């Protein structure tokens, strides 16, 4: 959805001049295609994972992808694939600069320094997940040499901005909004039809979207309170308990969604509970009041991406950090819930207004891009 959002915005502004480079590291591609759960977990979660993977693959046609696709662990082949084909290459967004997580220091998302002959830009790139205290000075110098060849550097979060500046580069570093912020709000009728036709959810009850990866006990208490008040939770990631896989009365799990459908359905929800960045951003794009749990833990002061987004949008009161104890997190969550139920429409209006302001973080990128288009660069 990040690629889709940025490509669509470029197309909207400048026409059909953009192509998404269809590269994925081979080892990562194999892991996605054949997720290794172990036999027990495969019996419990395998069906849902297969649904998600199939829907994801089916949605790739929404992207203006390069042909043929490139799956390789050999980064020299990535350089050969790109070099000479494009006038401008934009890297990002998401954690493409978190090289410790399997990409390696020679990460292709540094764009190969002087070896790649084109205009180089980043949009909302992030090093989220990178343990900055384990980055040596030698590694910072290597990264700085690669980034020195960029014509524009845009990052998604303050922690990445601080890290990029620590590499010693001379360029300005810009804070961008996540590209999904630039998406249009989905059509509520499309969302309702999808819920009814695919999942037989009639919308008689207000729906609560749930996308959680941790804080299970806190989530269960929240859901129990909501159900007592007549709300219907729907799960967007996995079951609360393994036995729910076989329980017809458990909350519905909507894994049979493509990324685009997942984005559309947020328009149908009344409230959102999540521990995920894009489970936060896509709900806010639809104006859905959200209680976001930021589970970032690095052992030192580190502003998580969920916390930054919620704070930047003036919604910090509805973000619950990992530094709190479990009892305090629960108390904060219940307070947030009651406040949203009392002030729902006002909070939704505030979200919509502030998301429009958040979009302005893309302005510097498009001003720079337009300066190259004005010089007659024909983007392939």
Structural description of this entry:
The protein has 380 residues and is an alpha/beta fold. The chain has two domains: 2-181 and 359-373, no CATH class; 185-358, 3-Layer(aba) Sandwich (Rossmann fold). It is built from 13 helices and twelve strands. The protein has a six-stranded parallel β-sheet with strand order 9-8-7-10-11-12, sandwiched between helices. Strands 3-4-5-6 form a four-stranded parallel β-sheet, sandwiched between helices. Strands 1-2 form a two-stranded parallel sheet. The longest helix has 33 residues, at 326-358. The protein is globular, with a radius of gyration of 21 Å. It starts with a helix and ends in a 7-residue tail after the last helix. The mean pLDDT is 91.
Main sheet properties? 6 strands, parallel
Mean pLDDT over the full residue set: 91
Content-based structural category: alpha/beta
Number of helices: 13
Gyration radius, to the nearest Å?
21 Å
Domains (count): 2
Strand composition percent: 5-15%
Q: Could you state the order of secondary-structure elements as H and E?
A: HEHHEHEEHEHEHEHEEHEHEHEHH
Return residue spans where pLDDT drops below 50 for at least 5 consecutive residues: none
The separation of the N and C termini measures 21 Å
Quick synopsis:
The protein is α/β, with parallel strands linked by helices.
SSE blueprint:
Elements: H1 2-14, E1 23-24, H2 26-33, H3 39-59, E2 70-71, H4 75-82, E3 88-91, E4 119-125, H5 137-147, E5 152-155, H6 158-166, E6 173-175, H7 188-199, E7 207-211, H8 216-228, E8 232-235, E9 252-253, H9 259-265, E10 271-274, H10 277-285, E11 290-294, H11 305-312, E12 319-321, H12 326-358, H13 363-373
């Amino acid at each position: 959805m990040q690629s889709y959002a940025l490509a669509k915005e470029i197309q909207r502004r400048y026409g059909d001049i953009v192509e998404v480079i269809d590269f994925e590291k081979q080892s990562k591609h194999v892991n996605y295609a054949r997720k290794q759960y172990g036999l027990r977990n495969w019996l419990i979660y395998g069906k849902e994972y297969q649904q998600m993977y199939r829907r994801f693959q089916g949605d790739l046609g929404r992207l203006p992808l390069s042909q043929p696709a490139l799956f390789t662990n050999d980064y020299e082949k990535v350089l050969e694939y790109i070099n000479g084909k494009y006038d401008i290459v934009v890297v990002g967004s998401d954690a493409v600069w978190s090289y410790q997580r399997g990409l390696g220091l020679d990460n292709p998302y540094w764009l190969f320094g002087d070896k790649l002959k084109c205009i180089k830009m980043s949009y909302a790139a992030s090093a989220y997940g990178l343990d900055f205290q384990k980055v040596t000075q030698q590694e910072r110098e290597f990264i700085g040499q690669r980034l020195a060849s960029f014509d524009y550097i845009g990052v998604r979060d303050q922690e990445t901005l601080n890290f990029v500046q620590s590499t010693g580069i001379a360029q300005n570093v810009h804070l961008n909004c996540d590209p999904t912020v630039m998406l249009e709000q989905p059509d509520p009728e499309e969302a309702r039809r999808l819920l009814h036709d695919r999942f037989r959810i009639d919308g008689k009850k207000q729906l609560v979207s749930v996308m959680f990866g941790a804080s299970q006990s806190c989530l269960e208490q929240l859901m129990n309170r909501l159900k007592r008040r007549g709300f219907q939770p729907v799960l967007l990631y996995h079951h609360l308990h393994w036995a729910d896989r076989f329980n017809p009365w458990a909350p519905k799990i909507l894994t049979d969604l493509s990324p685009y459908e997942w984005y559309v359905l947020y328009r149908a929800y009344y409230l959102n509970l999540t521990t995920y960045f894009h489970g936060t951003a896509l709900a806010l794009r639809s104006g859905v009041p959200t209680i976001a749990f930021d589970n970032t833990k690095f052992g030192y002061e580190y502003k998580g991406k969920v916390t930054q987004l919620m704070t930047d949008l003036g919604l910090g009161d509805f973000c619950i950090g990992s530094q709190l104890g479990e009892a305090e997190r629960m108390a904060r969550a219940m307070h947030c819930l009651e406040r949203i139920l009392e002030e729902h429409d006002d909070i939704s209006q505030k979200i919509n207004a502030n998301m429009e302001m958040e979009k302005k973080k893309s302005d510097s990128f498009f001003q720079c891009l337009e300066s190259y288009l004005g010089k007659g660069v024909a983007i392939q």
